DNA sequence: AGCGGTCAAGTTGAT
DNA sequence: ATCAACTTGACCGCT
């Protein structure tokens, strides 16, 4: 069975997640800031619940939660704790209700922190802040029943082998509640599946295989072979990514298309049991379209 | 009501 | 040395 996943937001369904910036928060007084944040975080917890309901009602088996669900959470000056906000305990309860809904309805939830989270950096402070960001993700993941916090390998700094050794060492030092959820994804500029699989084997962290990135940044291995290697790293339902490039299909990596061209879905995935996150600008419309195109209805 | 400038953070590679 | 691209909005604040 193939479970298709929706990434973060909706195209036409009126479910919106709110955001803010550190700059704006710092322009507010202490009381105003706490009230503003409580309102925003409460809104996002409610929006997440509605997002999961939409997925359950429409046969979408997975939902990627935007890392900004609690925006600016780990910022050095503007960061905050929910339990210090007015009504913060009820906001946490609301997130836990999302987790219960996820469990009861079999909707998988995941996170994909953005490019600023880098565990391979030679700069200790970058790694320290990245780990702090992972702690935030793991905390929310525990509430909402997310079993994947998916990151890229980061930079190469002119020496991939050394950077990958740093990456593995940092992963091995992470707390279990992070490490048990962490996944590594091949990217389109630096780290291929062939680069990451050894780190996955060493650390027990699974590989999220992004086939579009693999086509942009090949490593000499076929899709079939890479699929097998990726599957072998998983101790739970595997998670892969698909997207279609916006313009012509050859040449360097292009931005995402509105929809998925079903020809980009490889034959060798047809009979697997896994989650496939759909990275397409038309969001839920693209997920539902791909379901039809693959006869998964 | 509509629109434009802005937004925490890292790294790479084009200029 | 500088800066856009990653992804891509959503927000505030001004008109």
Brief write-up:
The chain is of the alpha/beta class and 297 residues long. It has ten helices and eight strands.
Task: Explain this structure.
With 297 residues, the protein is an alpha/beta fold. The protein has a single domain (2-293), classed as TIM Barrel. The chain has 10 helices and 8 strands. It has helices at residues 22-27, 30-57, 88-105, 124-144, 160-172, 176-179, 193-203, 211-216, 223-231, 283-293; strands at residues 2-7, 62-65, 108-111, 146-152, 182-185, 207-210, 239-242, 274-278. It has an 8-stranded parallel beta barrel, surrounded by 6 helices. Strand 5, helix 7 and strand 6 (207-210) form a beta-alpha-beta unit. Helix 3 (88-105) packs across helix 4 and helix 5 (160-172) runs parallel beside helix 7. It starts with a strand and ends with a helix. The relative contact order is 0.13. The mean pLDDT is 94. The protein binds a DNA duplex (15 and 15 nucleotides) through residues 8-9, 16-24, 72, 74-78, 114-118, 121, 123, 126, 129-130, 133, 154-157, 187-190, 253, 255-256, 279, 281.
